[in-house]
Write a structure and sequence with these properties.
Blueprint lengths: L5 E2 L6 H21 L7 E5 L2 E5 L8 H10 L15 E7 L2 E13 L4 E6 L2 H7 L4 E2 L2 E3 L5 E13 L6 E12 L2 E9 L1 E3 L23 H4 L15 E11 L5 E10 L4 H13 L5 E4 L2 E3 L7 E5 L11
Parallel strand pairs: 2-4
Antiparallel strand pairs: 1-9, 2-3, 3-9, 4-5, 5-6, 5-8, 7-8, 9-10, 10-11, 12-15, 13-14, 13-17, 15-16
């Protein structure tokens, strides 16, 4: 999980450290399997301003999560975007990360009414009594980074916290204390991306679809007599890197159908690099080829075989 909470463990006790690592790995696997959907964020207030907290800091300590789960109402509502059925509210107070409340929804099947309740403070303090200081719960179990976000969503992947917003901060936490804060203004510079194409494009008798990929990415079909009789090629972009101007500066292509063909893949790589502009996603200090890398696209061929013979 690239996003959310990154946990760092420092201890002299090797076996204790290994147990902590195993707990985190178990929780990570739970997240990848049970939560294979876009997941609702926690909420954090920074200087009185509400941000989304794209992660679950309580997951960093398995014992805490088990204790919290034990006192949550069994009848609380859950959904695919929040299988746990609760949202934690946080704040940064005097340079430390604090847990303020835990809220959940309840449902009355008779009246069809849904309402939100807040876990009683006494219950929450009892669960987190080890970390309570003057009726304030300090997240001193947490060492790592949290990612918070505001503004318009500019990238979304249907998996856990794999999304990005215009305004994001990466906040380093050490035993609950706030350290370095990196702030980013993210954006998308429009250009072509394969995610804009239909998943199964239709082609006319000349192999042209709604977007003519043969015109955008020309290759010398006459050099590939092995393609005669086929009406399409399926390519996959395994790796892609774009620059600020929307140029594809690196890519790795593979031919999936009709058969692996390194010579054809290499020519397509050059054709892709020659095209511009590509969509550029500037996310937290880096340029990403979202909508390009990892995509498979179909390249239609004319029904009439090309004239000439391969060299």
């Amino acid at each position: 999980m690239g996003d959310g909470v990154v946990i760092l463990i420092k201890t002299d006790n090797y076996y204790y450290a290994m147990r902590k690592i195993l707990n985190i790995l178990v929780l990570a696997m739970m997240s990848l399997t049970a939560y294979a959907t876009g997941y609702e964020s926690d909420i954090i207030f920074i200087d009185g301003v509400e941000w989304e907290l794209l992660g679950r800091p309580v997951y960093a300590e398995r014992e805490l999560w088990d204790a919290l789960k034990a006192v949550l109402p069994k009848e609380r509502t859950t959904r695919s975007s929040n299988w746990d059925g609760f949202t934690t509210y946080w704040s940064i107070q005097r340079g430390v990360l604090c847990m303020d409340s835990v809220r959940y929804e309840l449902y009355d099947s008779d009246t069809k009414r849904i309402w939100t309740e807040c876990m009683p403070s006494a219950t929450l303090l009892q669960v987190f009594k080890k970390y309570a200081k003057k009726k304030r719960i300090v997240a001193s179990w947490l060492t790592g980074d949290i990612r918070v976000a505001r503004g318009k969503m500019i990238y979304y992947q249907h998996s856990f916290f794999e999304r990005n917003y215009e305004n994001e901060r990466i906040i380093s936490i050490k035993e609950g204390k706030v350290g370095e804060v990196k702030e980013y203004q993210n954006y998308v510079k429009e250009g072509f991306a394969f995610e804009d194409l239909q998943s199964r494009p239709r082609f006319d008798n000349n192999g042209k679809g709604s977007v003519d990929l043969r015109e955008m990415f020309p290759i010398h079909l006459e050099n590939y007599p092995e393609l005669v009789g086929y009406n399409r090629i399926v390519f996959r972009i395994n790796k892609a890197r774009v620059d600020e101007q929307g140029r594809l500066v690196e890519c790795e292509v593979r031919v999936l159908r009709p058969a692996d063909n390194q010579r054809l893949a290499a020519e397509m790589e050059e054709a892709l690099k020659a095209y511009s502009p590509w969509r550029v996603s500037y996310i937290n200090g880096e340029y990403h080829a979202y909508g390009i890398q990892g995509y498979t696209f179909t390249y239609g061929l004319p029904l009439t075989p090309p004239e000439g013979k391969g060299k």
